């Protein structure tokens, strides 16, 4: 079965109307563009050029803007729903008990797990759809405009695989895997997520029906160890909280929100990535259970560092207050 | 007596990780190890890049890592004359402490050495510590560099320099000699192609690949892995002693052990958590009961007061 059909079947199978990639519409635009270019130029000339015309009215005016809007909607919807779902799961205090009682009355625990699974599938299938349509664009135009657009989208943080919530949902799915859920056939597209260790390096792996695999590396590139108290910057790179604070030249007390907007990501050198950093709580739970010995050892060393930084912070505060 | 390292220090921890990584994935093009007495001081040797005037050369140098590593860049100094960099002078590179604004914490000693090899054939453009010798002079220096390692520093450091030099010599592929006959010419071509493949992919060493004995037991120590263990190159360990009451050997074993001691992925609530939850619910109920009692009492008093009036 062609991916286009699979994708449409999946989107129609959704109970709630979710934003998606207008595959048929975009394909029509590309066909129209192909007709236009073939009518304007002889075939050999267009092949010789091997690039999309500088000002292709179809591409500039319709294809990319509509794809950009669709991508924005998809990422927005995914982030919103994922955040809401994880808030329910990670609630604490009185709210936790209130939600627990509410859940018992409504029996929505399994629904919660199923929604998590569906959201991961939704993210991955849309990521593939976007990749496929951009490949088709490049194939038709003999260009690399599609790839260029993809990199621009990444810098705009509209790439769904960049979302920290995807990583959180994958961890959430592993954390609650013991609960057996009768998944609907329409949504049984991915074999599930798993935490794998390749050469001692941890990674979140998720395989989708189309033999497509998503790997999220969980090694902090600053301390070269498994991420501890992980935090995802807005560019999508994951680091230990302490490492991220050190890279941003801020103390743990002040936190990443107080980082200078000029500070860049230690991996991709993108600016202003610290302010919108997300604490990956589910991933933290998963890793703390998967490598307990390491976690306990790391807690000891982190505690020393945190106490030291807090002490320094309050010393400086006292000195400032006294006027020394 | 071996010096102990403070593994609670993030810089020390990171450096020990790099030592482990460097030894588990050795390269034919470079080798680097820290001094036993000071792990912030590294000794390295790089091979001159192929198809350049530096080809065949073995260039030694030292790396000084700052105490804030990896957030601050290291400084580099070459000890072998190359005709490209001055000796015993801190050189100016975009990866060195001369340009801290370019440095990224995700870079390591390995990436720095790869960058240094890539920098060698480039134009110096008057950078600090750079030289611009003629090609012939550089070729002569490259040949000379193989003869003997440079003499520098303490006997401890010199021993390490000699060790690294031996390792680099053992890894250097001899250039094939062209014979007049057609058959031998073809043979030499295939040998050259093989050598090129090896050098183009230096990382493609098998996990159990042995490093010659000349390099000494500091370079790599083979360790048998249990059948069910992860077949990871992290099983290869440093014999350098370190850590606060823990040798770096034990430290590396510890970090490997955590991979093997993986717990299943199911969420099992600890008994402590369950008790805590029950206690919290109990407390909540008790508080509600007390509040209700108080409320009932207060309404009773109110009723009595109203009757009296």
Return the CATH topology of the domain at 27-173 and 214-219 in chain B.
Ubiquitin Conjugating Enzyme
Portion of residues within helices of chain B? 40-55%
Order of helices and strands of chain A: HHHHHHHHEEEEEHEHH
What is the radius of gyration of chain A?
23 Å
CATH class identity of the domain at 27-173 and 214-219 in chain B: Alpha Beta
Instruction: Return the average pLDDT of chain A rounded to an integer.
Output: 73
Series of secondary-structure elements of chain B, N-terminal to C-terminal? HEEEEHHHHHH
Radius of gyration of chain B: 31 Å
Q: What strand order characterises the main sheet of chain A? A: 1-2-3
Shape of chain B: elongated
Explained architecture:
Chain A: It is an enzyme of class 2 (transferase). Chain A: Its EC number is 2.3.2.27. Chain A: It comes from Glycine soja. Chain A: One of its GO terms (biological process) is protein ubiquitination. Chain A: InterPro entries: BAH1, SPX_dom, Znf-RING_euk, Znf_RING, Znf_RING/FYVE/PHD, Znf_RING_CS. The complex is a heterodimer of chains A (324) and B (309). Chain A is mainly α and 324 residues long. Chain A folds into two domains: 3-189; 218-322, Herpes Virus-1 (2-Layer Sandwich), CATH 3.30.40. Chain A is built from eleven helices and six strands. In chain A, helix 2 packs antiparallel against helix 4 (57-89) and helix 6 packs antiparallel against helix 7. The radius of gyration of chain A is 23 Å and the shape is globular. The termini of chain A are far apart. Chain B is of the alpha+beta class. Among the domains of chain B are: 27-173 and 214-219, Roll (Ubiquitin Conjugating Enzyme); 279-309. Chain B is 41% helix and 7% strand. Chain B contains seven helices and four strands. Chain B has helices at 10-24, 109-119, 135-147, 155-171, 182-200, 248-260, 271-308; strands at 30-34, 41-47, 58-64, 75-78. Chain B has a four-stranded antiparallel β-sheet with strand order 1-2-3-4, with helices on both faces. Chains A and B meet through strand 1, helix 9, helix 10 and helix 11 of A and helix 1, helix 6 and helix 7 of B.
């Amino acid at each position: 079965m062609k991916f286009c059909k699979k994708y449409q079947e999946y989107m129609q199978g959704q109970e709630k109307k979710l934003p998606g990639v207008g595959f048929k519409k975009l394909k029509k635009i590309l066909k129209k563009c192909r007709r236009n270019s073939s009518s304007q130029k002889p075939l050999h000339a267009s092949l010789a050029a091997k690039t999309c015309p500088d000002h292709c009215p179809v591409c500039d005016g319709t294809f990319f803007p509509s794809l950009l809007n669709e991508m924005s909607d998809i990422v927005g919807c995914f982030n919103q729903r994922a955040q809401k779902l994880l808030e329910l799961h990670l609630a604490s205090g009185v709210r936790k008990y209130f939600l627990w009682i509410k859940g018992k009355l409504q029996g929505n625990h399994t629904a919660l797990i199923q929604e998590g699974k569906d959201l991961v599938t939704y993210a991955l299938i849309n990521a593939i759809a976007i990749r496929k349509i951009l490949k088709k664009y490049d194939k038709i135009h003999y260009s690399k405009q599609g790839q260029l657009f993809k990199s621009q989208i990444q810098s705009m943080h509209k790439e769904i695989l960049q979302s920290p919530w995807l990583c959180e949902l994958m961890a959430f799915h592993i954390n609650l895997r013991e609960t057996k859920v009768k998944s609907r056939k329409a949504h049984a597209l991915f074999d599930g997520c798993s935490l794998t260790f390749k050469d001692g390096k941890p990674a979140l792996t998720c395989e989708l029906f189309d033999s497509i695999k998503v790997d999220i590396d969980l090694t902090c590139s600053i301390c070269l160890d498994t991420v501890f108290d992980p935090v995802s910057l807005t560019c999508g790179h994951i680091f230990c909280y302490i490492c991220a604070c050190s890279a941003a030249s801020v103390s743990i007390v002040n936190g990443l929100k107080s980082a200078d907007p000029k500070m860049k990501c230690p991996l991709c050198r993108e600016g202003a990535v610290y302010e919108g950093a997300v604490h990956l709580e589910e991933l933290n739970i998963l890793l703390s259970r998967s490598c307990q010995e390491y976690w306990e050892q790391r807690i000891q060393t982190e505690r020393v560092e945190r106490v030291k930084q807090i002490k320094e912070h309050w010393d400086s505060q006292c000195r400032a207050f006294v006027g020394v | 007596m071996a010096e102990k390292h403070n593994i609670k220090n993030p810089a020390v921890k990171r450096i020990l990780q790099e030592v482990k990584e460097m030894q588990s994935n050795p390269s034919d093009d470079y080798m680097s190890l820290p001094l036993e007495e000071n792990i912030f001081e590294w000794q390295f040797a790089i091979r001159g890049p192929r198809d350049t005037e530096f080809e065949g050369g073995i260039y030694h140098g030292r790396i000084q890592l700052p105490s804030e590593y990896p957030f601050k860049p290291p400084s580099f100094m070459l000890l072998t004359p190359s005709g490209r960099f001055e000796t015993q002078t801190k050189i100016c590179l975009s990866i060195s402490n001369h340009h801290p604004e370019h440095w990224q914490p995700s870079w390591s000693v390995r990436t720095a050495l790869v960058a240094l090899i890539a920098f060698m054939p480039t134009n110096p453009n008057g950078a600090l510590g750079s030289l611009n010798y003629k090609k012939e002079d550089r070729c002569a220096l490259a040949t000379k560099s193989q003869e003997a390692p440079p003499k520098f520093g303490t006997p401890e450091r010199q021993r390490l320099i000699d060790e690294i030099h031996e390792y680099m010599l053992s890894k250097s592929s001899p250039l094939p000699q062209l014979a007049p006959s057609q058959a031998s010419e073809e043979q030499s071509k295939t040998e050259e192609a093989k050598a090129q493949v090896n050098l183009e992919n230096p990382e493609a060493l098998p996990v159990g690949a042995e490093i010659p004995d000349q390099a000494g037991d500091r370079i790599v120590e083979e360790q048998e892995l249990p059948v069910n263990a992860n077949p990871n190159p992290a099983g290869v360990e440093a014999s350098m002693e370190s850590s606060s009451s823990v040798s770096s050997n034990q430290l590396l074993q510890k970090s490997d052990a955590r991979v093997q001691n993986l717990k299943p992925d199911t969420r099992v609530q600890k008994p402590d958590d369950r008790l805590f939850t029950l206690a919290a619910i109990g407390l909540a109920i008790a508080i509600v009961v007390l509040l209700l009692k108080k409320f009932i009492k207060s309404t009773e008093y109110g009723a009595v007061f109203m009757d009296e009036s």
